[in-house]
Amino acid sequence: MRADMLTSILKQLNGTSAEIEASGVISTDGLMMAAELPQSLDEDRVGAMSAAMLSLGSRTAQELDRGHMDQVLIKGEKGYVLMTQAGQDAVLTVLAKPNAKLGLIFLDVKRAAQSIQELI
Amino acid sequence: MRADMLTSILKQLNGTSAEIEASGVISTDGLMMAAELPQSLDEDRVGAMSAAMLSLGSRTAQELDRGHMDQVLIKGEKGYVLMTQAGQDAVLTVLAKPNAKLGLIFLDVKRAAQSIQELI
Q1: Which residues of B touch A53 (CB under 8 A)?
Q2: Ranges for the Roadblock/LAMTOR2 domain (chains A, B) (predicted)?
Q3: What is the ipTM of this complex?
Q4: Chain segment A24-38, per-residue pLDDT in tens
Q5: Rama region for A85: left / alpha / beta (φ>0; ψ in -120 to 50; rest)
């Protein structure tokens, strides 16, 4: 099952670092394809916010001559949201704690996005 | 003149790194307060996209339990857009080249945002 394989990639990603709290694969129209979220987070909300940020981020990148968008990172006082394109049709959204080492997270997330892209 | 002092902070910021291409201080409602942009970039466009990203980024941070938003980073194939809160009323938007060293840029931009916050 492809959904099981996506979930397996997300479980592995969440396991690479104690600072990764949640992850999900979302179609570019905002529907959840696979998710490993804590109970406190609603799948639909993560999907909707990811799709909205992706859409506006893409437009911003184009309007400001940054070309095709690869990633959006939001830093809040209580942690990070990192959205990464996984091919044309999906985005990998990851939530991390405020003390996360961004260099490591970027690396692990990039690898996971690559695996997801190959699968979809 | 406060506008001159803001422009001076931006000139200094753009001078810290050859990878910083442009910077601007924008009110939270999207109006430009000071800008050091290349001719190819329109002030109104930078202002509007910054305000829109800031608004959606804040909402995303809140909806996904990341608290108050500090920064949004967009990575495109042709470079970065980094938006940083400079106090309650303004945002510092910086455009950087794709080969920029993010750690250095984050540091310089944080300092500039602090100076802007104290000035406004």
Answers
A1: 56-57, 60
A2: 6-96
A3: 0.94
A4: 999 988 899 999 999
A5: beta
